[in-house]
Amino acid sequence: MLTVMKSAAIQDRMFTGKYLRALIVPLFFEQILTITIGMADTIMVAAVGEASVSGISLVDSISNLFIQLFSAFATGGAVVASQYLGRGDKGNACKAAKQLVYITLIVSGAIALVLIGGNRHLLRLVFGQIEADVMTAAEDYFIFITLSYPFLALANSCNALCRSMGKSKITMTVSLIMNVINIGGNAILIYGAGLGTAGAGIASLASRVVGAIIMLTVVCNSRLEIHIDRLLHFEWNGMMVRRILRIGLPSGIENSTFHIGKILVQSLVATFGTPSIAANAVINNLTTFANIPGSVIGMASITVIGQCCGARRIDQAKYYARLLMVTTYLMMALTCLVFYILTPQLSGLYNLSQEALALSVKCTRMLLIQTAIFWPMSFTLPNYLRAAGDARYTMAVAMGSMWICRVALAYLFAYLGFGLYGTSWAMVIDWYVRIVFFLGRWLKGGWKEKSVI
Fold it and tell me: pTM of the prediction?
């Protein structure tokens, strides 16, 4: 009898193991390729000097603020589309896709227009009196990165829609194409033409333009479950926009506030000197790579948990949440171990001074230990809540924890003389607090009562 019941339960699962592997494995490689774009800029421009590495790092800290905002809108659209797909309502899923593209283009275009004329002032406002060669490198890079925002935002939204359908192999392929363009462009423009950070920015812009064009062409294919009909025929659906913003706006506020806090910490790190700025750039790159499994599962959960909640299969949502979290921990344990062992060699790729190299190894190894244990519950789990429609709660917790722990403690530890190592520990304490609230929310089940569609 138990065997029959177990068999029936397995047959009743909304997603097969094959489906999950087809969703997650390409996503894993896609994220490696996506992160490689930024990492390639930093590594390849290292030949120009430490000031160029520091300049790109400062720009990336600002740029990530807007990238996270674009990703939040993409998440909102993906949640709505996934829930409609889970309910079997493909018509409204397609309407949500079209509105997502409109929102993305309007917001990213407006941001790009403002920053094109004011990026130099923004850099000076945020980072103040840093060394002149670092500022010059940052300014040269930032103008081209600003121009790329609408294309990056559009590609992100189209990627999210493809993932909602479980078609992550498409996004992986496009990421590969973008990487080839970016790295090839870097080689030509940095080494061949001698354009330094400006060359890195131009290569990134070119890769994002191509990626956006390809992804937009893909999602306009009427053979897909979620597609965009007559993109140039403008149709504004206020109700659908509100549903997307119900998830996207809290996530956008959360992500933007989170990265404003990170920028403040980055600004604090800038006062420690160029070695700390350069070391921090390396730390961010290496730990971001180690976080890939958690990020991938978090993105996959938008599709899986979102469709379960759209179908009102709470039992399925809980089952896949456990399965995905166990998978996250196993994968992150492996990646963190590998990166811990290779940290000195990987840090050495960045052409750092001895002071910066020693600092990057020390902080990176500490963060990798903490990441393997605490990062999944801090960042993967909240995506479960967002997929269920509980975005306001995640926003409130993340914002409170960010300002009270990461920012305030970073300044306190800097005052006490702990430098970059102290700011790293402030970040880890932020993770501890997030876990208490997010895990409690999931276990108590408040997310079950939320409704998106």
Answer: 0.78
